[in-house]
């Protein structure tokens, strides 16, 4: 996946990425990023996959009996039920931030794996660090492209997400910088079997505000992502589309300017 991101960056289709510092390929990713300083790299705060950077015994509310992070569904319930320690969230976030610095990278922003930081208890911890470091945070805004047909389940998730976004924005407005929109092919509903410029045009045409992030998940080979995600096949197809150059045509057609989170004004 690291190489696929660099491929798309060199092709001009990707300008920003995000690093999961507790991943097996973190050092390789950091070495690649050092070669391409124009590629923005944020911290992908991860508390749902693998092991923590902090000592597992010091973040007990985040891990199971074997010292692994709880899966997203379990951790989400624990966050909603207030079973996750705020001080332990802060400890793990600080450990991951320090790890990124040790890898020689300055985070352009902070987001999170599976958008877990949208949960208020987690958001406040991440937002406080972003404010202290004077870096933006990614807001996982809801996008509703024309013609999209979300399932009933997705509409319910969007309603919950909207409520948390409203709370987070109200609490931190004026103290924090963030993107004004976020979207991906998944916002179209059923993922197309063949990705075309029309699909990305549909997403970008619905972009809100002037700081929109088009989220992509490129991978050269679906097998690279076995055990990490269920979208391996899609990621390989998306890498091929990004390498076609067609996305640049859509960006130019819509009069958009490419950038990364470091371009968000202070």
Please explain how this structure is put together.
- The protein has 266 residues and is mainly α.
- Helices cover 42% and strands 7% of the residues.
What would you say about this model in short?
The protein is mainly alpha-helical and 266 residues long.
Largest pleated sheet: 3 strands, parallel
Helix content estimate: 40-55%
Name given to the CATH architecture: Alpha-Beta Barrel
Assembly of the depicted chains: single chain
Structure annotation, total helices:
9
Number of domains: 1
Query: Can you identify the CATH class?
Result: Alpha Beta
What is the string of helix and strand elements? Answer: HEHEHHEHHEHEHH
Shape: globular
Which band does the percent of strand residues land in? 5-15%
- Uncertain runs are none
Please provide the count of β strands.
Answer: 5
Average pLDDT for all residues:
94
User: What is the first-to-last residue Cα distance?
Assistant: 31 Å
Helix-strand category? mainly alpha
The largest sheet has its strands arranged as 1-2-3
CATH superfamily: Glycoside hydrolase/deacetylase
Q: Report the C-alpha radius of gyration, rounded.
A: 18 Å
* CATH topology grouping: TIM Barrel
């Amino acid at each position: 996946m690291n190489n696929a991101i660099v491929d798309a960056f060199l092709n001009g289709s990707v300008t920003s990425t995000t690093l999961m510092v507790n991943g097996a390929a973190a050092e390789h990713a950091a070495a690649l990023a050092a070669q391409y300083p124009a590629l923005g790299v944020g911290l992908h705060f991860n508390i749902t996959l693998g092991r923590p950077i902090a000592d597992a015994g010091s973040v007990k509310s985040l891990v199971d009996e074997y010292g692994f992070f709880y899966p997203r569904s379990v951790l989400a319930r624990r966050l909603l039920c207030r079973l996750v320690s705020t001080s332990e969230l802060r400890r793990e976030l600080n450990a991951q931030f320090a790890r990124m610095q040790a890898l020689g990278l300055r985070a352009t922003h902070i987001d999170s794996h599976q958008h877990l930081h949208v949960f208020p208890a987690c958001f406040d911890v991440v937002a406080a660090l972003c404010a202290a470091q004077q870096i933006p945070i990614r807001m996982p805004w809801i996008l509703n492209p024309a013609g999209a047909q979300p399932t009933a389940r997705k509409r319910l998730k969007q309603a919950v997400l909207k409520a948390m976004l409203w709370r987070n924005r109200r609490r931190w407005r004026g103290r924090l910088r963030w993107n004004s929109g976020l979207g991906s092919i998944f916002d179209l509903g059923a993922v197309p079997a063949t990705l075309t410029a029309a699909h990305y045009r549909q997403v970008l045409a619905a972009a809100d505000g002037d700081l929109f992030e088009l989220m992509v998940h490129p991978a050269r080979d679906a097998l690279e992502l076995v055990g990490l995600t269920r979208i391996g096949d899609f990621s390989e197809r998306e890498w091929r589309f990004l390498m076609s150059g067609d996305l640049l045509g859509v960006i130019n057609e819509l009069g958009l300017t490419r950038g990364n989170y470091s371009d968000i004004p202070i």
